[in-house]
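Lab meeting, action items carried over

1. Structure of the three-component assembly. Owner: GW. Status: complete.
Input record:
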Amino acid sequence: MEFVQNFPFFSILLSLFSGPLCSVIGGKAARRVNLAVITVVGAMSAAVLSFTICSGEAYVYLMGHFPAPWGNEIRVGVLEALMALFFCVVMFLSMVGGSLERALEIEAEKENLYYVMVNLLLSSLLALIYTNDLFTAYVFVEINTISACGLIMIRQNGRTIEAATRYMIMSLLGSGLLLLGICFLYDLTGHLLMSNIKEQVQILHGTGDYHIPLLVTVSLMSVGIAIKSALYPFHAWLPDAYGYSTLSSAAILSSLVSKGYIFLLVKIFYRVIGFDIVRDSKIVNILFAFGVVGMIMGSVSAIKEGNIRRMIAYSSVAQIGYIYMGFGIGTTAGVIASLYHILSHAATKSLLFVAASGITDASGDSTSFFDLTGAGYRNKLAGVAFTVGSLSMVGFPMFSGFISKLLFAQAAVDSAYYKMLPALIALALSTILNAVYFMKTVIRIYTPVDREEVQRRGFRKVTFVDQKAKSAALVCFIVLNMALGLCSEPVVRLLREGLSLFA
Amino acid sequence: MDAWILLPVILPVLAGVILLLSLAFEKRKNGREQPDREPDEARLRSLHRYVIAVLAVSGVLALAVSFSGEHSVTLFELLKGIPVYFHVDDISRLFAAAISVVWLAVAFYSFVYMKHEGKEQRFYGFYLIVYGVLMALSFSGNLVTMYLFYEVTTLTSMPLVLHNGSREAIMAALKYLFYSMCGAYLGLFGIFFLYKYCDTLTFTAGGTLNLELAQGNVTILLIAVFGMLVGFGAKAGMLPLHAWLPAAHPVAPSPASAVLSGVIAKAGVLAIIRVVFYVVGPDFLRGTWVQTAWMTLTLLTVFMGSMMAFREPVFKKRLAYSTVSQVSYILFGLSVLSPVGMTGALLHVVFHMVIKCALFLTAGIFIFQCGETRVEQFRGIGKQMPKTFWCYTFASLALIGIPPASGFISKWYLAQGALEAGVGVFGIVGPAVLLVSALLTAGYLLPITTSGFFPGGIVKHGKAEEHGTGAAVDRNEQKDDGKAANLEPPLAMLLPLAVLAALAILLGLFPNPLIGFAGKIAASVM
Amino acid sequence: MNEAILAVVILLPILGGVLVPLLPFKNRTQMMVYTEGLVLLNSALALAMLFHRPEGSFVLFRFTSDLTLSFHVDGMGTVFAAIVSLLWPLCVLYAFEYMEHEKHEKIFFMFYVITFGVTLGIALAEDVVTMYCFYEMLTLVTLPLIMHTLTREAVLASRTYLYYSLGGAAFAFIGVIFILIYGKTPNFTPGGVLDLAAVGDRVNILLLIYVLCFMGFSVKAAMWPFSSWLPQAGVAPTPVTALLHAVAVVKAGAFAVMRVTYFSFGPDFVRGTWAQHVVMALAIFTIVYGCSRAVKETHIKRRLAWSTVSNLSYILFGAAIMTPLGLVGALSHMVAHAVMKICSFLCAGAVICKTGREYVHQLDGFGRKMPKVFAAFTVAGLALMGVPGLCGFVSKWQLVRAAVESRDPLAYIGVAALMISALLTAIYMLTIVVRAFFPRKDFDYDTIRDVKDPGWKMLLPFAIFVIAIVAIGLHSRPLIQGLESIAAQLP
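Predicted assembly:
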């Protein structure tokens, strides 16, 4: 056994224990610790990734060398390592990009608590990615929920408290459904370890026993996770949570937290139930329908929105719809497309949140559209970054969104008639709707206003030097986005490879 | 290569363009615009000499081209396989010769008349150009070339209509333009199909339709041909695209109305002759619904035109309706698709050209001398301008078709053609309609003569200058002091009128060469 | 010639254009010399390249192993690239005089020059993905040009343009995907690339996708019901309206339609199916619709824009006939319309720029004051009507020939629509001409004392375009033969 194989376990532990550590040190130190942890975890994930790529197979890691069912297992493959690495990168950039806002919006004495939450969140995400045990997954889902609430609440105003409460209620509902599902499964199979459950489920499926309970279980878990990841129509908590929390929270929540749940769902589909059974259960069709509706309705809500942060938040609803639509297609190609979209959307959405904050900085911290006029000239980098993000969302060639659109469309073409046309048309319509609200914003921020008007309202110019951290983060996001758009092939290959190792 | 046959085309067009360009340059040189500067007499005289010289030379050239044997010239390929091609045949000769004579006569007349309209230079510029274009139209040797010059005729003759620049004139000119264009495009629609289904678009007596190719596509071909008939019929004032005529004539200067009605309307006839007898071939149409529809349309037009003319109080408008009706005589003659009918049609082309020009010239004289446009104002006018009025009367008699004037000959042939052609009920209905229309013609032309010579009271007409152009003044209230003024127009106006009126009678007295010629043409195509 | 030249002619204006606002020009003349020099150089390169066509293709970039940005010149690309390369320098020249009084000139020229490269990219694209990418880019780089004046209407117009264009591209994208999956190759191949064995029983789906793709790409070609952005975009400065909204952008749409029809889906696959009838019916309807709107419109540029709507559908109609002859017709109208519409737009622009008059009823008597401009306008108008001897007749003839030969009853209706449209064209063009040359008799020329012909920078393009209109009209044979040789490659 290579030393590097321990890294996933180390990274979970490291982030888990650095959480309590942060609670006892000062804010500034906590920030350093947090960044360091993310960096180290990222580095370790990279190492694991290269190891798994070289070895070409996934491995099971027994925690403390106790075999299951007594011990706990984690399982590492290309896909898991890639996700972990990517999550670290996005989280790091989001933390860096949002540092200025955090300093302003979080009370100084509570700053270290924020990092506690972030570290816990990271650990839970990593655990969701790596674990091979359904109950462990559930535990970390709850940790995830609680830390996410903390991230929302840390910026103290009425809105965030309301948003956090809503989030909490919806999330707990989702967790409850998930837990019910896990209980049923345990009842049916007598196992909690994923690989064991799968064996039993295959047998059950073969004999045809417990057909209905199995169906109910799958539905419960799917719906539970759908609620947690804000699939339309369970998205009501989302705009406020993303729209009013502090910048790095919004970026992390939108690009990582929901994605962690979705990854868990992939895991359940592939490793717990078996994708064939899921497909036969027609549950995918329901996900498909909700996904398609979400693609459209999310964008429609975004168009109606007059607040740029909430608009971007609503756009997430649409993007989550894309991902579920990909699952719903029910082919490997569809799942690959969804996985790619998880990456692409994570890179784009956090970019958009950071860029939007750059723009609002240059408009007197107002998020309403009218005040954003001409902001692209006052903060050039943020303007460019927002444009890049928007174009990516619209699926413009050269940016990551184009590749996901391409993959989705290709997956759709190879599916059944009754899915192909709705999927393709929803893609096209959704592109148009995305164009409507994102490009409207782009045009708005590049519409110049009078110099006097700018001075009268006290809008200041924001240059690269003023916000070094944010600017650096923006540049990195842009590069990441374009890298995903231009050199997608290795990534897609890894995803494909990883998915084949996954089951 | 007989490139010289293009001389009668190029010479007047160039001369006209020079006139227009010099006008433009002069205006720019003057700097400030002077809308209607009065041109001095000397200048005008030289302008007249220039116009007459050009017209005379090109007229002689045109006659020379026409009567010196077969000529043809290919200029260049407009499209692949479609050259701009000129060829002089009998139809070209007939039209070119007739147009040249009438054009020259009207030019003489206009020298005096146009004084009161102003902007002579512009008028003559276009007048010359249109002449050249009409020559080109007559000499065209294939369908596309003809279409080209047909369009150009429309475009260049439009300024003649809107000459006086009043709102009505401009609207009428646009109406003329768009009706003609509409017709031309209907024609073009057909040309496209004929290009596909004919061996060649070059005019060939008897038609070039490839019946093998046409097999199975007869319906669309018939539709296309019918479209062409209606389309080119627009210029000839055939129903349903006739409405531009009554609008354009009252506002155009009288010389322009004369050529528009007498000559340019015949361009439509020429086009239809070319299409039916030289490309499609009469055999293809005989007995089809197209022939029936065509005959119906022409007869309707004949009757309706006469009726409208009968009701119309404005003299020039009445004449315009009369043109609508008379040109459809020609088209009816063509539509029966028999040699005799076609002979009659060709004869009527020439006769109507002469007669209608004469009539419009008299209308111009009334306007020019008295400023009177409505027929009820003409009471007693014959006493003050007897010569003019006699010319009018002769021309009217010719148009009605009283033997031995010219109209009688052509109508005789038309009726005979219809009876002989074996077109069923139309063989009876056609001549009947022609007869009724002739009666109506008498009804709308002769009362003017009678009331003009026998007003039943003392009516005196003043000169136009005394009461302003076009103003209707009750003549009865004028002071009865002494002799009524002599309103006879100057010789330059009277002479062309007299010549045309004389021609209208003489052609009826000695019709044989013309009948022979027309008969030859008709025999060659059927 | 080396294949790399393909990328050079595309990238040179893009990069050179970006430099326009960055270079430290001392005065306007330097900027003008640089811009014109750049465009001329690139046009010369492009034309030289078209004369010595490189045989192979050039791969600029690989998205994935089978998705590439690659360029290749073939006959159709040559036609479009040649039109673009010939027109661009002239319009830049014209723009110098036009833009004299506008703000943000450098930004304007930057995008104006970049658009050149992007349009060439569409023309020279080797495969459907490359074309799609440049098609999207074209939307983006032309957006600032429409917005240029930054008035409220301009912003609204640019938004409409963007939504329509991106929306169209989104639907066209579906078609692109299908070509990628069901085609033997993404490269444009005369006669289409569909692998009929793979299509199997999905023919109807594929036809539906074809219709979507056709409609998607024809959004840029302003086909009904997606035509209203074009007249709105008329708020842009005239060099933009003339070059982009009469030639580059809108023709890119028509070009893309022809590409997917003749070179991707394949005319044989679609001909005779319901899909052909749908697209042809739409094109026919647009022909009449555009003209009717033009007649109704009194703003001179918008009137011309509606006329463009109608004329572009001539091209689409040609494409929808789906025979080699139809392609000849469509391409010849693409060439002819480019010349005549740009000429008429430049005339309108000269009037607007020099006199500030924008409506038809204000043009009384202009013919005498701006004789050169209105002479050019008249020629262009007559050409648009299809008077024989001018270029419009040539292309119309080819289109109709194709329609008649196709023996499709719907195509016959199309011919009738062309004729109706010609009549309406006569109405909306000649009313302007008549007004300008023959004002009412009591018209007072003092009211338009300020009106006079523009300077040589504007007049030179007019002269060239008028000569081109007449030359193509009188001697169309080489052009048509060239186009026929392109169409002859179709199986």
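2. GW to write a short summary for the group page. Key points so far: The longest strand of chain C covers residues 58-62. The longest helix of chain C spans residues 324-355.
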